[in-house]
Amino acid sequence: MGIISMIIVGFIVGLLARAIMPGDQKMGFILTVLLGIVGAIVAGYLGGAMGLYQPGEGVGWIGSIIGAVIVLFVYGLIAKKR
């Protein structure tokens, strides 16, 4: 059940990040889920480095969305160069 909930939460976080970020991101279901999951990982890493989260502590919805927006921004910079 943990993997299914991670996919659902990743999808919701990815959709919200794509809605917040200006522009048109052409991503399917799988990339949106990966965006949400990677966003949560990035937020956990950055939050831990800044002292906001303890090791093993969950990031939360807002942190995951902020991390996904950061990942989407970096992805846009890389895709623009191509």
Note the main attributes of this structure.
82 residues, mainly alpha, 3 helices, 0% strand, globular
Shape: globular
Total domain modules: 1
H/E element order: HHH
The major beta sheet can be summarized as:
none
Question: What's the total number of strands?
Answer: 0
Mean pLDDT: 87
How much of the sequence lies in strands comes to under 5%
Please state the CA-atom Rg, rounded to the nearest Å: 13 Å
Gap from first CA to last CA? 39 Å
Query: Low-confidence runs (pLDDT<50, min 5 residues)?
Result: none
Number of helices: 3
State the helicity in percent bands. Answer: over 70%
Which structural class matches the secondary elements?
mainly alpha
